């Protein structure tokens, strides 16, 4: 009896309808106008070190992120972070821009927080304003 039932089920044809094409998810579109943000006013511009770039490279190597295509013979990962400045030029919040690599996004946000500590120009860092901090990781070959 079970064999007959399995044979009947396997003979039936099922129309497989492909899913509709992917639509842009409005919830995933950033409400931040990245190009409209002023640069974060550092006193001393921080530098990305080779160790920082190695962390990003390791994320790519371990498959947590897709490596970027080489441009002019170099692989670079660019990360932007929106920064809310509070009273006394203290960072109140950081929001990394999505680059399809959450670990690097969060790493960049943490770096910006550290870079900004006691390193913002209070004459130009206005309380309540959002700024953009950008960094580029040149990946070693």
Helix content: 25-40%
Q: So what's the overall shape?
A: globular
Which residue ranges are poorly predicted, with pLDDT under 50 across at least 5 consecutive positions?
A: 5-25
- Structural class of the helix and strand makeup? alpha+beta
Write the H/E string, N to C.
HEHEEHE
Taken as a percent bin, the fraction of beta residues is 15-25%
Number of helices: 3
Keywords:
single chain; 141 residues; 26% helix; alpha+beta; 4 strands; 4-stranded mixed sheet; globular
Secondary-structure map:
Blueprint: H1 2-11, E1 38-39, H2 50-61, E2 75-85, E3 91-96, H3 102-116, E4 130-139
Parallel strand pairs: 1-4
Antiparallel strand pairs: 2-3, 2-4
Overall description:
The protein is of the alpha+beta class and 141 residues long. It has helices at 2-11, 50-61, 102-116, and strands at residues 38-39, 75-85, 91-96, 130-139. It has a four-stranded mixed sheet. The longest helix is centred in the last third of the chain and has 15 residues, at 102-116. The chain starts with a helix and ends with a strand.
In short:
The chain is of the alpha+beta class and 141 residues long. The protein has three helices and four strands; from the N terminus they run αβαββαβ.
């Amino acid at each position: 009896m079970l064999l007959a039932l399995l044979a009947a089920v396997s003979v039936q044809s099922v129309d497989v309808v492909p899913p509709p094409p992917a639509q842009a998810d409005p919830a995933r579109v950033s409400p931040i106008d990245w190009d409209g943000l002023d640069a974060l006013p550092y006193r001393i511009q921080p530098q990305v070190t080779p160790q920082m770039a190695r962390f990003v490279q390791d994320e790519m190597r371990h498959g947590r992120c897709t490596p970027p295509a080489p441009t002019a013979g170099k692989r670079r990962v660019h990360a932007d972070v929106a920064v809310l400045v509070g009273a006394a030029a203290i960072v109140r919040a950081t929001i990394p821009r999505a680059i399809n690599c959450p670990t690097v996004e969060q790493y960049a946000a943490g770096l910006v927080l550290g870079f900004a500590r006691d390193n913002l120009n209070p004459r130009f860092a206005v309380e309540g304003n959002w700024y953009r901090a950008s960094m580029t990781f040149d990946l070693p070959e």
